[in-house]
Design goal:
single chain; alpha+beta; three-stranded antiparallel sheet; two-stranded antiparallel sheet; 7 strands; disordered C terminus
Length: 317
Amino acid sequence: MEAQNKAENAAGPWGHERVELIRRTICPKGIGEDEFSLFIEQCKRSGLDPLLKEAFCVARRQNAGSRDRPQWVTRYEFQPSEAGMLARAERFPDFKGIQASAVFAEDEIIVDQGKGEVVHRFNPARRKGSLVGAWARVVREGKLPVVVWLDFAGYVQQTPLWARIPTTMIEKCARVAALRKAYPEAFGGLYVREEMPPEEFEPQHGEPVREPLPAPSPSPVRETLETPAKEAAPEQAPAEAPAKPRNASTVVAFGANKGRTVSELSDEELAETIDLAHEKLMEQPKAKWARAMRENLAALELEADLRCRVPSASAES
């Protein structure tokens, strides 16, 4: 009995029953033995618990062939969450906190990475200028603080979340980058969803395989940052085909805003609902409700994209 107890204690939180629970409830059904073993090993190395939603096993479409002859395959990868990395950092004995903030063009800021210092001043009531980046600072006992700076132009992506809440997104990326730099033994090589390019989940039966889109043209924010003196071109009628019609009667089918139409949602509520859907699909990409959620998510992302392109009535007035 004593030997059995020692064996159970040695197994710790990664005993056979718990590992099998993770396989049944967290990982997609199509995952192979090697991919599952690698996922568990990455959970152990990083100290992130998938049962607490600190990490996910994500199905991604990747081109295993060439550009001329693509061969799209599904691969299952380990992906941490920002909340999980912060929770793990709290368990390090030398961790004394993390700071982060987005920076706008007219803010006063001095970043000294050599000394681990940041001086950032701005007036929230009169904050002006374009979003230019974000900094994060990890404080460790007995060690030099770790400071990172991220340029917004180098991180922004053509997705609804980056379009609607760019400040939140760049701050998340800065915090994660600082944690990676401060604790490379735990977080080295790990990237959260906010840092990754948009990917498609493995399609269900009957769904078409949608390949990643080609690189989009620079966003309006990036053009402003790179060429501030460029004169605006005269407005011309678009040569492309008309955009898809707006369907303001689309009803949210999940989350806290379930039952409301998209026209009733504020920009923040719409972005939060889209973010929730992505998290749920990462957790259970092959669930019975996943296909319906993807269809509802597509309608929500279309609405978010249209709001980015079409100014609201209040903005026009």
